[in-house]
Structures are given as structure tokens and as C-alpha cells.
Amino acid sequence: MVTSNSIQVTTPYQIPSFQLNVSLMLGLWSRTMIAIKATIRYCRDSYRDFIMKMRIMMRNPHISISRKCRITGKDAYQKIKIGEGSIIGDFTFVTVSEDQNCSQKVPSMLEIGESTYVGELNNLRAAGGTIKIGNNCCISQQVTLVASNHSIKKGMNITGQPWDVSKHSIYIGNDVWIGANVVVLPGVTIHDGAVIGAGTIVNKDVPENAVVVGNPMKLIKYRR
Ligand SMILES: CC(C)(COP(=O)(O)OP(=O)(O)OC[C@H]1O[C@@H](n2cnc3c(N)ncnc32)[C@H](O)[C@@H]1OP(=O)(O)O)[C@@H](O)C(=O)NCCC(=O)NCCS
After folding, report:
1. For position 9, what pLDDT does the model report?
2. For position 13, what pLDDT does the model report?
3. Which atom of ligand 1 is nearest to the CA of 181?
4. Of the four listed, 71, 72, 167, 213, which is most buried by Cβ atoms within 10 Å?
5. Which residues are catalytic?
6. For a substitution probing ligand 1, which of 121, 213, 217, 219 has the most ligand atoms within 8 Å of its CB?
7. Does the CB atom of residue 122 touch ligand 1 within 6 A?
8. Which domain covers residue 176, as residue numbers?
9. Closest of 139, 132, 113 to residue 188, by C-alpha
10. Pick from 153, 90, 101: which is nearest to 127 by CA?
């Protein structure tokens, strides 16, 4: 009995050991399941990636695609053409996919000519438009080629909007050098022999043999 001058001692709540074991086991089980699912997803992605590159290389012999380059898009291997002697470097990301939200179908393809070098860490996005690169070009590093814009109508999430079909696709001629960190926007044509300086945002067509730099892009000279 508790009196006014006695100290009340409360026993801490004891978790029964079997309850402890059950929650421990459940925790362990759910972590194992998460790890198994993540491993399956990783293996499936690696397998798909490998098969995609194999299919592309079988259709386009005598090319080199880095093991570390990533190519995505449903049946992308059918929409990619790469000429003899061309190279795609490490960590370059290529996506070729049709737009499911868009009623007006614009062909999404990637075509690369012969002996063209696409270096490391580039981002080639042929979705909602086509990207064509000619022969003997050099696409340096961290270059983004984006073939179409999202529509930007007010009142609808950007991710749910179809591609803007008013301006799409990128055409790059032969013997073009695109410097590091360049962004080429949809609807642009870069003609034969052009040089695009590092960090340029290409928002307009570039004439033959022109050397352009900067943002806003300006013409500094012609190749001689
Ligand atoms: C475009 C490029 C080839 C021009 O080289 P260049 O003929 O030697 O030109 P210059 O250095 O004489 O520059 C001429 C003018 O353009 C400017 N300029 C050159 N490149 C520029 C660039 N990328 N961005 C902004 N301005 C640039 C220069 O500052 C100079 O301006 P000024 O006359 O007011 O002084 C070179 O500057 C470049 O950008 N190379 C890309 C390098 C690269 O990305 N390599 C990746 C590995 S493959």
C-alpha cells in the first residue's frame, strides 16, 4: 500500500522476450525483402542494358559503345543507326522514345554517321524528335542535345504535357566540333564544318564553317 510518506516505485514495462524476437524478425525480414527487390531491379536493369547494346551493335557493326554508356527507350535499338567507326564514350546517356501523350506523332530517332566521336558524359535525348549527327564529328563532353521541348501550358503539370511539336529535332552536318558543356536546343541545324565553343547555348542555326561561342550565341569567325 502506498502511503503519503512512502516512495512509489514503478516497475518499468518489460517487453516480453518473444515479442522482442517477433519484431526483430519482422524488421530483418522486411530489410531482406527490400535488399532482394533492389538486387532484382539492379540485375534486370543491367541485363536490359546489356541486351540493348548487343542489339545495337549487331545491327550496326564496327562501332564502339562504352560498357558504361546507358541507352534507354522502348525498342530504342530499332531507332538507332550508327555508322562504321563511330564511338560512344563512358557515361553518355542516350534516350530514344516516342511520346505517349502526344497525338501528333513525330519520329524519334538517333542517327550518327561514320567515324564520329561522341565523348564522355554526354546527354542525347531523341524523344519527341530526331537527332542526326553527320560523319567525322566530335561531340566533346557534357554536351546536351535535346530534340524537343515539353509544352508549357498553364494549369497542367509539365510532366503530363505532350512534347511541343512546333519546334523539334536537331540536325548536325559533317565535320562539326561541339565543345564541352554545350546545349543544343530543339529545332536547330548546325551545318557542315561548324565549331561550337565550350559552354555555348545553341538556339539558332549555325552556318557552314562558322565558329560560334557563348550565351547568347555569337559568331566570332569562320574556319579558313
Ligand atoms: C571556340 C574555340 C575553338 C575558339 O578558339 P580560338 O579560335 O582560339 O578563339 P580565341 O581564343 O581567339 O577567341 C576569340 C574570342 O572568342 C572568345 N571565346 C572563345 N571561346 C569562347 C567560349 N567558349 N565562350 C565564350 N567566348 C569564347 C574569346 O574570349 C575571344 O574573345 P575576345 O576577342 O573578346 O577576346 C575555343 O575557344 C573553344 O571553346 N574550344 C572548345 C574546347 C573544348 O570544349 N574542348 C573539349 C575537348 S574535345
Report:
1. 59
2. 66
3. 44
4. 71
5. 150
6. 213
7. no
8. 60-222
9. 132
10. 101
Residue 48 lies in a domain: no
The answer to pTM > 0.90 is: no
Write out the three cell numbers for 11. 516497475
Whole-number Å distance, alpha carbon 177 to ligand 1 midpoint, is: 12
Residue 70, classified by CB atoms within 10 Å of its CB into exposed (0-12), middle (13-18) or buried (19+), is middle
Question: For residue 126, is it within any domain?
Answer: yes
Q: Answer yes or no: is the C-beta of 197 below 6 A from any ligand 1 atom.
A: yes
Number of domains making up the chain: 1
| CATH code, domain with 169 | 2.160.10.10
In a domain, 177, yes or no: yes
Average the pLDDT over 48-68 and give the result.
94
Whether 161 maps to a domain, the answer reads: yes
* CA–CA distances in Å: residue 128 to residues 53, 93, 106, 164: 22, 16, 6, 8
Q: What is the pLDDT of residue 65?
A: 95
SS3 of the chain: the string is CCCCCCCCCCCCCCCCHHHHHHHHHHHHHHHHHHHHHHHHHHHHHHHHHHHHHHHHHHHCCCCEECCCCEEECCCHHHHEEECCCCEECCCCEEEEECCCCCCCCCCCCEEECCCCEECCCCEEEEECCCEEECCCCEECCCCEEECEEECCCCCCCHHHCCEEEEEECEEECCCCEECCCCEECCCCEECCCCEECCCCEECCCECCCEEEECCCCEEEEECC
